């Protein structure tokens, strides 16, 4: 099984040279730590910056420079700043090639739910609905099951949706899966995880064809 | 032209009960601290506030929530405020959550004279309920209306007496689009400068959108999530 960093490391392998990438809060943020050698990408933060760098050194925090998670960040050479409307013009206009975000549930038709648990948690969708409705490539980073051990890869989402039919790929602590017309297609297993384990942890339709290789990190 | 007023109290003169306000900022970054404080003093209530977030318990719009001055919030993310959550769950506070990109574009549209637009964001979700759906290039979109406000409360880094504005870092966020959409746009700046001090090529928002501007003071600029890396 992978930990949070392992999930981020595996997702980083999907990055392609020259891409603009939006990373959501949580595990997705960690992807920036594992950019493969020889790959150059720029990170977009929807509150209004491109060319986001690492966290600042202690004492160099700037209250006027934060990411969408409200964390203090830095900027890299070539970065730029813009307002919220232009930020989502980039996203809606498909100038950002990849979105990585977390989820509470994903259905085997690509539906995603990650913003509301009725009666319990209502924090809001932030930019997630805009991001999932427009991005060409959407990778979900999440644990395969919830705290109760129930599958988060479902036949149908039970929580209010963030977007419909939009998720293309999922990387969990157990597996890498593509979302296809026939359901979740198992591509890779995490180290020490069997196909049987993944079947047991997946409620939605799961396609297993041939030998499933172990992830290489 | 001179849009300068003496202080925050003068700047917000005319805000009355039950008005709709836009308030700039993302989290606590780029919020109009002085105008919010003056509004707490003024005590206007029944307000509808359009703002990406609702501040934290003891800062930003949280200060207006504590005083129960807000009747309705229109926001995209409201996660960091316990008092907000309490008022929402008890039904005291009406909340309209909308996607962040739609919120920004609805403000921009309001200021730009575009009454409504189609966006794919929110299609197939609660957000789309009751909204017209139309297909463009085979893809479903929903109709979103422009937003307007009686007052827009905005924070900029530098500005001149014409209302020309320059923002700093990610404190820009919603401030320019909200400035465009206010019937009366009130701007507070860290530095009120002579017009010659601003290069017209580098103005982020032309003064035409601004009605009142004042020199802010005592900025706290609170950081919500202080994150650092070690030097080794």
Keywords:
heterodimer, A: 217 residues, alpha/beta, ten-stranded mixed beta sheet, 26% strand, B: 232 residues, Glutaconate Coenzyme A-transferase, eight-stranded mixed beta sheet, 20% helix, globular
Overall description:
The complex is a heterodimer of chains A (217) and B (232). Chain A has 217 residues and is of the alpha/beta class. Chain A has five helices and 15 strands. Chain A starts with a helix and ends in a 10-residue tail after the last strand. Chain B is an alpha/beta fold and 232 residues long. Chain B has helices at residues 8-11, 33-42, 62-66, 82-89, 100-112, 175-181, and strands spanning 20-23, 47-50, 70-75, 94-97, 116-119, 133-136, 139-145, 149-159, 165-166, 182-192, 212-215. Chain B has one domain (8-215): Glutaconate Coenzyme A-transferase. Chains A and B meet through helix 3 and helix 4 of A and helix 5 and helix 6 of B.
Q: End-to-end span of chain B in angstroms?
A: 53 Å
CATH architecture name of chain B: 3-Layer(aba) Sandwich
Task: Sum up the overall morphology of chain A in one term.
Answer: globular
CATH level-1 class of chain B: Alpha Beta
Let me know the average pLDDT of chain A.
96
- How would you spell out the order of helices and strands of chain A? HEHEEEHEEEEEHEEEEEHE
Looking across the biggest beta sheet of chain A, what order are the strands in?
Answer: 4-3-2-1-5-10-12-13-14-15
User: Count of helices of chain A?
Assistant: 5
What proportion of the residues of chain B is helical, as a percent range? Answer: 10-25%
Mean residue pLDDT of chain B: 97
The SS-based structural class of chain A is alpha/beta
Query: How many whole angstroms does the radius of gyration of chain B measure?
Result: 18 Å
Largest interface: A-B, 52 and 58 residues
């Amino acid at each position: 099984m992978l930990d949070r960093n392992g999930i981020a490391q595996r997702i980083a392998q999907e990055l392609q040279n020259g891409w603009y990438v939006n990373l959501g809060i949580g595990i997705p943020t960690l992807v920036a730590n594992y950019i493969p050698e020889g790959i150059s990408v720029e990170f977009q933060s929807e509150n209004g910056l491109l060319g986001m760098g690492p966290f600042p050194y202690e004492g160099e925090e700037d209250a006027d420079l934060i990411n969408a998670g409200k964390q203090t960040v830095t900027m890299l050479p070539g970065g730029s700043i813009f307002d919220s409307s232009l930020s989502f013009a980039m996203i809606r206009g498909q100038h950002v090639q990849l979105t990585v975000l977390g989820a509470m549930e994903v259905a085997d038709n690509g539906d995603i739910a990650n913003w509301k648990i009725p009666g319990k948690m209502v924090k809001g969708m932030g930019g997630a609905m805009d991001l999932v409705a427009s991005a060409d490539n959407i990778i979900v980073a999440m644990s395969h099951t919830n705290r109760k051990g129930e599958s988060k890869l479902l036949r149908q989402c039970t929580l209010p949706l963030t977007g419909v039919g939009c998720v293309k790929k999922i990387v969990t602590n157990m597996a890498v899966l593509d979302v296809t017309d026939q359901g979740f297609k198992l591509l890779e297993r995490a180290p020490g995880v069997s196909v049987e384990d993944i079947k047991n942890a997946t409620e939605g339709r799961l396609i297993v064809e041939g030998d499933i290789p172990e992830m290489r990190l | 032209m001179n849009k300068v007023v003496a202080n925050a109290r003068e700047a917000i003169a005319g805000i009355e009960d039950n008005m709709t306000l836009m308030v700039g900022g993302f989290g606590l970054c780029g919020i109009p601290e002085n105008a919010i404080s003056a509004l707490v003093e003024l005590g206007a209530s029944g307000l509808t506030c359009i703002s990406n977030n609702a501040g934290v318990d003891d800062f930003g719009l949280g200060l207006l929530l504590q005083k129960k001055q807000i009747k309705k919030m229109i926001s995209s993310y409201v996660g960091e405020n316990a008092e907000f959550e309490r008022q929402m769950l008890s039904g005291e506070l009406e909340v309209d959550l909308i996607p962040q990109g739609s919120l920004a574009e609805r403000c921009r549209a309001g200021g730009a004279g575009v009454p409504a637009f189609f966006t794919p964001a929110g299609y197939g979700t609660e957000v789309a309920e009751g909204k017209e759906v139309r297909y463009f290039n085979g893809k479903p979109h929903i109709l979103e209306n422009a937003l307007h406000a009686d007052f827009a409360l905005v924070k900029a880094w530098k500005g001149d007496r014409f209302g020309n504005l320059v923002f700093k870092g990610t404190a820009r966020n919603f401030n320019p689009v909200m400035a465009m959409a206010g019937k009366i746009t009130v701007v507070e700046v860290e530095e009120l400068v002579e017009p010659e001090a601003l290069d017209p090529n580098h103005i982020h928002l032309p003064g035409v959108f601004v009605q009142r501007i004042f020199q802010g003071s005592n900025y706290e600029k609170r950081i919500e999530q202080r994150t650092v890396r070690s030097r080794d």
